[in-house]
Amino acid sequence: VKNKQQQDDELEQMKEELALTQKDRELIISKMADKDLKIDEIKDSKVNLEAKHKSELEALEKKLKERSEDIKKLQNRLNKIKEDKTKEEMKLQEQQEHVASFEELVTLKTKENRNLREQKNALITEKDDLHLKVQQET
User: Fold this and answer.
1) Three-state SS annotation for the chain
2) pTM recorded for the entire structure
């Protein structure tokens, strides 16, 4: 009888252990399902973030390309302005050289005119002296 009672006790203990094991199993399955949901959420979040980052990166690359084109246009414009400035400086230098030549010519002509006036005055004086001499002799 004791053997039967012992077997019944063991059987009861096994049933209890089995019940606990099933509860543990259900709890583990529930926790795994929760973890799977969290993993899925994380994966979805990751996909969304990657898509967002890709979109932002494309927008930044587009903006960078536009800025690079703007910089290139500005550099071309600056080079054109420098080229125009150089041409203007060359024209100005050429005009200054013409002015200097003209001033030199004016100075020469002024000296020639002064010399001619002096010669004229000298000739007039000489003529007047000759007229006076002629009048005195007659």
Assistant:
1) CHHHHHHHHHHHHHHHHHHHHHHHHHHHHHHHHHHHHHHHHHHHHHHHHHHHHHHHHHHHHHHHHHHHHHHHHHHHHHHHHHHHHHHHHHHHHHHHHHHHHHHHHHHHHHHHHHHHHHHHHHHHHHHHHHHHHHHHHC
2) 0.49
- Amino acid letter for position 75: Q
CA atoms of 116 and 109, how far apart (whole Å)? 10
pLDDT tier at 1, thresholds 50, 70, 90: low
Return the residue matching tokens 């390309």: 65
Per-residue pLDDT band for 99 (boundaries 50, 70, 90) equals very high
